[in-house]
Design brief:
Layout lengths: L3 E6 L2 E6 H4 L17 E2 L4 E4 L3 H13 L11 H11 L11 H26 L11 H11 L5 H23 L6 E3 L13 H8 E3 L1 H24 L3 H6 L1 H22 L7 H13 L5 H7 L3 H12 L1 H25 L10 H12 L12 H19 L1 H33 L1
Parallel strand pairs: 1-4
Antiparallel strand pairs: 1-2, 3-4, 5-6
């Protein structure tokens, strides 16, 4: 038959009708003629040096107007290149197979995203290409700032992390009676004082050994901060860094607190000075953020940060659902118990109750006391389970995906290092 066309693709012959190829105008096969460079007049066929296995998918587009593909049968990236060669658009991929078609592309995109994110964290403090910095200074800077730059830097990071954990532990211990000794004379008159926390501060003091360890930790933090500032290739960037601001506040607050306690032991009798000391003590809580600063260089924390970044929509959705639920149910419970005595004397009190109920914490300090109130509370609890339960699996799924990709990257890099050693 004259309208039958023979196509030789990579040594495998395919036959189809000419009107079938003309069904997709503008594609490579829709305009075949004897003048085409691929036409071999001696055998009466068109030859294309392409993959014959993939050509079956190309013919499906001409014959049926859609292409069915599975992730196990063919790589989506290879098929995409083949479609571009034949001039066929991706819209011919069947809807049921679209996820399989783009699976490999998404995997590559996620892989690049993980690599770029990891490199950004590891190299965020690295000097710019146009900055001139001596080798010893660069080595010292990487030793203090980048735990992944060398084994000594990693050991220093673990030691510094241990110092941070020690500092945080001491902060906790200082608030417990077991780690304090009684004062012979209270810091001020405690007559009529009923606050147990104030009584603890006024009548006891931490063990001197623990105080000395805490001061040693703060000296270490201060020296480390000063050295990093001196070695920093970009002073402005260093000063504006969030983590460095936290470090500076922690060191300065502890220094000021120590100076006040040693130079003015009666500071508790001065309300203004006591308020200042209290403020400095609150700033000391920020020393826990140092742990995040160091942990962000480790793979697990990087993956968690990346998963949260990728799940930003879900996190915002979770916050929005909780806020909307809080506004709705706090207003509803207020009017549900409007004509009787109850805990909900105003709507803002309902904010606390609705959040506690929606998150299924249920402290029980505020609760409804009528039939309508119980109904609102039940609906609030069920709504909270749905609104908080739906976005969480997405975040967990993203973490699992990024974890698997990061693990594959780590394995590939180790294999590459082994091949390099064997080659050398």
């Amino acid at each position: 038959m004259e309208d039958r066309i023979t196509l030789n693709v990579g040594g495998v012959k395919f036959q189809c009708r000419a009107d079938t190829l003309r069904s997709l105008p503008g594609t490579k096969l829709s305009t075949l003629s004897a003048e085409n460079d691929a036409y071999d007049a001696a055998v009466g066929e068109y030859y294309f040096d392409r993959n014959p296995t993939l050509f079956n998918y190309i013919l499906d587009a001409y014959r049926y107007g859609r292409i069915h593909v599975t992730a196990e049968s063919v790589c989506g990236l290879v098929l995409k290149e083949e479609l571009e060669y034949w001039g066929i658009g991706e819209e011919y991929i069947a809807d049921c197979c679209w996820a399989a078609f783009v699976a490999k592309e998404r995997e590559i995109k996620m892989r690049n995203e993980v690599i770029n994110f990891f490199d950004k964290i590891d190299n965020e403090s690295a000097p710019k290409a146009d900055q001139c910095i001596s080798r010893w200074r660069l080595g010292a800077w990487n030793f203090l700032e980048n735990p992944m730059s060398s084994m000594p830097a990693k050991l220093w990071a673990f030691f510094f992390l241990a110092a941070v954990i020690t500092s945080v532990t001491l902060l906790v211990m200082f608030t417990h009676r077991s780690f304090r000794i009684n004062l012979v004379v209270p810091k001020r008159n405690v007559t009529g004082e009923t606050n147990p926390k104030m009584l603890l501060q006024l009548t006891t003091t931490p063990y001197p050994m623990l105080v000395n360890i805490d001061i040693a930790c703060m000296v270490l933090f201060g020296v480390e901060l000063l050295l990093r500032f001196i070695l920093s290739p970009d002073k402005k960037k260093f000063v504006l860094s969030f983590y460095n601001i936290i470090d500076c506040l922690c060191v300065l607050s502890t220094l000021c607190l120590t100076i006040v306690e040693f130079t003015n032991p009666s500071y508790l009798t001065d309300d203004r000075l006591f308020g200042f000391v209290y403020f400095l003590s609150v700033l000391g809580v920020m020393r826990t953020i140092r742990m995040i600063k160091l942990a962000r260089h480790f793979t697990g924390m990087k993956i968690l940060l990346l998963a949260l970044k990728a799940s930003l929509r879900e996190v915002l959705l979770l916050i929005m659902l909780i806020v909307l639920g809080m506004l709705f149910f706090s207003t509803l419970i207020y009017f549900a118990e409007f004509f009787q005595e109850s805990h909900f004397v105003n709507i803002p009190i309902g904010f606390w109750w609705s959040i506690v109920t929606m998150t299924t914490v249920g402290y029980g300090d505020k609760h409804p006391s009528s039939g309508w109130g119980y109904l609102v509370g039940a609906i609030c609890a069920l709504s909270g389970m749905l609104s908080t339960g739906l976005p969480i699996p997405v975040i967990a799924s993203n973490f699992n995906l990024y974890y698997n990709v990061a693990r594959a990257i780590t394995i590939d890099r180790k294999k590459g290092e082994k091949r390099k050693k064997l080659t050398n």
